[in-house]
From TrEMBL:
The lineage of its organism: Bacteria, Pseudomonadati, Pseudomonadota, Gammaproteobacteria, Lysobacterales. This is DUF1761 domain-containing protein. It comes from the Bacteria. InterPro entries: DUF1761. The keyword Transport does not apply. The chain crosses the membrane at residues 6-28, 49-70, 82-101, 108-130. Signal peptide: none annotated. Keywords: Membrane, Transmembrane, Transmembrane helix.
Length: 131
């Protein structure tokens, strides 16, 4: 594990989580996600700057940690594979444990887990291409 980090690639990876999330939780799954989460799709967020600011900082931490895990010069196939592994085997399954105890639906888990799977695959693509 190396601490040689391409900071610009990490920031772009974090921003990519927002682009993906905008599509995923917008036109693709907004209504299904809101229905399954029990949220009014027309309600305004309470503090959008706080929500988006916190989400960006957390995406940045995740992208940084993933870059550290991959090392300074990962091969693209390995980076994408690790992204799928982390996104599914660590993040989505952890959500699944919480959702099982919270009595949340399989559909909600598939939407949220699917987003995080693709988020880390996208991180792998960006970090695997941009050394």
């Amino acid at each position: 594990m190396s601490m040689e980090i391409n900071w610009l690639a990490v920031v772009v990876a974090a921003v990519s989580a927002f682009v993906l999330g905008g599509l995923w939780y917008g036109p693709l799954f907004k209504h299904a996600w809101c229905r399954e989460a029990g949220i009014d799709p027309n309600a305004a967020p309470r503090h959008p700057a706080r929500v988006f600011g916190s989400a960006f900082v957390l995406a940045l931490v995740a992208a940084f940690a993933f870059a550290v895990l991959l090392g300074p010069d990962p091969a693209l196939p390995l980076a994408v594979h690790h992204g799928a592994l982390v996104g599914f085997a660590f993040v989505a399954t952890s959500f699944g444990i919480n959702y099982a105890f919270a009595g949340r639906s399989l559909k909600l888990w598939l939407i949220d887990g699917g987003y995080h799977l693709l988020q880390f695959v996208l991180y792998g693509v960006i970090l695997g291409l941009w050394h």
